[in-house]
């Protein structure tokens, strides 16, 4: 039997706790505020930004909506970030990724004050994570750790295989897993014998960006499978990086797409915004 991990329900529970925290902050004279920067008109990014703003509103977090044209120059974006860094009414800043190709994402992330780093992607915050003294954390991997805890899936001493080495997911997740005593393998597109390596995992995290790539030949019986992928098929339906039908019955736990990791990313962004607002006191 495979238990489907309900990210929607877990995220909703977290959001209702966060609404109470936001109320407490407001009573202390702090209105938490998240600045959301979107450059260009990528349809998926527009949906994510809209969902983030909606979630913030419901919790009682103010948002500053900064939508820039796809032709925005790097210098203009950096100036905007500078002004938000200096604005005491803004507690958290996020730049929706990916940015248009002409922009340098690393330089942009580096420009955000680490104290207002809603996504936990600034090199200083990643450094804190690597030293196991976490400050702001990347939202998707943090959401995965919370989901595992919610379902009492132990991590210490487990073999964790992460397929994908992005700065957004794979690399920070590896650090988080090491910090709680997992044995971690990070695999990627150049990894040899990938199914064999994946089959060694007690917890398999798939963030390849390739629709339904991972089937049951990658999964050990009884493993936990976390699907980070979001792929829209030509018929408009959404699938993950895991072939869910193939893995069902083999995995003990599986995150669905949609409704698994995605909603947790947004809940963690809200949590981090409140934490940054709290620390600004
Ligand atoms: N600055 C950032 N950019 C990006 C991040 C990020 O964490 N910070 N992650 C992804 C996109 N993303 C948030 O930005 C994100 C993606 C998907 C979901 C989500 O809730 N997905 C739903 C399905 C939504 C749909 O119907 O399309 C689900 O999985 O159930 C939330 C956040 C890249 N960029
Ligand atoms: Mg670029």
From TrEMBL:
Q: Which organism is it from?
A: Ligilactobacillus apodemi DSM 16634 = JCM 16172
Q: How does it assemble?
A: Homodimer.
Write the protein's name. Bifunctional protein FolD
Q: In which pathway does it act?
A: One-carbon metabolism; tetrahydrofolate interconversion
According to UniProt, the reaction catalysed is: (6R)-5,10-methenyltetrahydrofolate + H2O = (6R)-10-formyltetrahydrofolate + H(+); (6R)-5,10-methylene-5,6,7,8-tetrahydrofolate + NADP(+) = (6R)-5,10-methenyltetrahydrofolate + NADPH
Keyword Transcription listed? The answer is no
UniProt keywords, alphabetically: Amino-acid biosynthesis, Histidine biosynthesis, Hydrolase, Methionine biosynthesis, Multifunctional enzyme, NADP, One-carbon metabolism, Oxidoreductase, Purine biosynthesis
Family note? Belongs to the tetrahydrofolate dehydrogenase/cyclohydrolase family.
* Gene Ontology CC terms: cytosol
Documented EC number(s)? 1.5.1.5, 3.5.4.9
């Amino acid at each position: 039997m495979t238990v489907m991990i309900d990210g929607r329900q877990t995220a909703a529970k977290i959001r209702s706790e966060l609404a109470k925290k936001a109320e407490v902050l407001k009573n202390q004279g702090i209105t938490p505020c998240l600045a959301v920067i979107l450059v260009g008109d990528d349809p998926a990014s527009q949906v994510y930004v809209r969902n983030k703003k909606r979630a913030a509103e419901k919790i009682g977090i103010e948002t500053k909506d900064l939508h820039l044209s796809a032709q925005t120059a790097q210098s203009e974006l950096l100036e905007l970030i500078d002004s938000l860094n200096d604005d005491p009414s803004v507690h958290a800043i996020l730049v929706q990724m990916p940015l248009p190709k002409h922009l340098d994402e690393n330089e942009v992330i580096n420009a955000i004050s680490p104290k207002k780093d809603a996504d936990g992607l600034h090199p200083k915050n990643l450094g804190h994570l690597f030293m196991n003294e976490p400050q702001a954390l990347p939202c998707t991997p943090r959401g995965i750790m919370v989901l595992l805890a919610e379902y009492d899936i132990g991590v210490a001493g487990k073999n964790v295989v992460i397929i994908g080495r992005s700065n957004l997911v794979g690399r920070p997740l590896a650090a988080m897993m090491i910090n709680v005593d997992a044995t971690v393998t990070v695999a990627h597109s150049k990894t040899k014998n990938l199914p064999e390596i994946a089959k060694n995992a007690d917890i398999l995290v798939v963030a390849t960006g390739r629709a339904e790539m991972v089937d049951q030949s990658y999964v050990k019986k009884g493993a936990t499978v976390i699907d980070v992928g979001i792929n829209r098929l030509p018929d408009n339906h959404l699938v993950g990086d895991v072939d869910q039908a193939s893995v069902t019955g083999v995995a003990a736990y599986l995150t669905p797409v949609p409704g698994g990791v995605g909603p947790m990313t947004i809940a963690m962004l809200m949590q981090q915004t409140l934490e940054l607002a709290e620390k600004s006191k």
